[in-house]
Structure formats: structure tokens, C-alpha cells
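From the thread on structure requests for the teaching lab: each student submitted one protein with a one-line request. Submission from student K.M.:

"Model Universal stress protein from Shewanella xiamenensis, C-alpha cells only."
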Amino acid sequence: MRTQEVLCPTDFSATAAHALNYAVEMANLYHVDIRLLHVVSPARSAHCYGIAVDTPATLEQQLAEFVETKMQSLQLQMQQGLAVGLKVKCIVRHGDASEEILAESADAGMIVIASHGSSGLVDFLKHHVSQDVVRLAKCPVLVVK
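Reply posted by the TA:
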């Protein structure tokens, strides 16, 4: 852990925002960088991000712009809390959230993840990403409520 980064997945929910603070604390404690990860899931529709669109191409463009803006904002916020010399790296992946987080965690020293994120019937009916990550990750996982 002392030389590996802290991986912090986010879905931009309030709980995920709370987990960011713990990721910063862990990074400062171990003097390591942070990888801030957002996974754009194909199953998520535009309304989950609060975007109104006419065409799939418009959705893709607006979604990419929204995610980039949110990630830059979170990166700046987290960077302000980090010790001098440490960095926050932003990563955006596309696919199943659990699979992408686990793939990204292959060389991470620790994962800091929210216990639950965005809500809705679809999320209620499917598995919880944090549960999959805790069960399958090869590194320590800190779950934040």
C-alpha cells in the first residue's frame, strides 16, 4: 500500500462525495496518489444524469461533457486537501461498474468506495456495486456510509 495509489470510484452521489474525503485522508496518511474513477454504464439513461436529449449522439456528447466537468470539479476539490506532491488522476471508463472498478483496482493499494450511490428502482433491483467490489477485490476496501 505504501507505494500504490488509492482508487476512489464515484457515481457523483452524495455518499460518493463523502467517500472522497476518506480517500484524501488515506492518500495523505500513506503519501500516495489518488485515482478518481467514474464508470459510465450503458444501462444508465440520460435522466440519471439530468440530461434531456433528442438523439443518441447528442446524449453521448452531452454525457461526456457532463462527466468531464464533474470529474474536473472533484479533482480540484480533492487536490486542495492533498499533501504537497500528491496528485489526483481522473479516469473515465465505460461498461459495467463492478467489472470496471475491479479491473482498475488490479494495481491499486486500496479502494475507497461509497456503500451505495445513485438510487432508483433499477439500482434497487440489481446488485450493489460496492458488495461486488468488497467480495472480489484483491486489495483492501474501505466502504463509506
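TA comment: The mean pLDDT is 87. The two ends are 23 Å apart (CA to CA).
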